[in-house]
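Table S2 (text version). Query chain:
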Amino acid sequence: MGQLFIVRHGQASLLTSDYDRLSEHGRVQARRLGEHWARRGMAVDAVFSGPAKRQRDTAALVAEAMHEASAPWPSVEILPELDEHDAFTMVAKAVPRLQDDPLVAPLARVVAVAQGREERSRAFQQLFEAVMVRWLGGELELDEVERWPEFRERVERGLRTMIEARASGRRLVAFTSVGPTAVMLRSALQTSDRRSFETAWRQRNASISTFAFGKGRFTLDAYNTLPHLPDPNDWTFR
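Corresponding structure-token output:
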């Protein structure tokens, strides 16, 4: 069986003008992962990353730590299929259309008055999840936003690209985000769309999830692990 290690990007810059930029803490998280793998003698056959800056920079910081330790590490291959869906455009376009929605409307009002980074971050996540429920159910048709079936099919295509082109028994690493991980959980566990995302939303920044593949099988071996961040104070979700 081959192994596919899925790494969520380090903490990004939520509620700033450029979310797609690792925070300083996110950069530390990524570096520590690379240092941990270097100490463990982690050897892989191929490395992939989504095209988002936070995904690429996480991959680059891990590679930097590996190279500084003189550990072998393949060059990263950018795979567009591992990109995240456009959550912020989705929320911005959906909320005005859902002003009477009993799930979305109250949460939008909470976001509007939230104070402080933690409160605002928590309120936005709750609003985002409510909008996502409508998106997953096919209730949102937004010209500017990729539909759920299209997103799912895109990520599944990327997954096939990674594992079908590699012989069974190979070890692969991919740097991506919560959405693509949810699609992979759905494939491995045969869970519903909503349940797959509810699980994926618990994924921490710079965490590792491991899948096994081979002979038509794709299964989950480990989820959301942080061996490189033993102090819970270093754990972040957003």
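Notes on Table S2: The mean pLDDT is 92. The beta strands are 2-8, 46-49, 76-78, 171-176, 208-214, 217-225.
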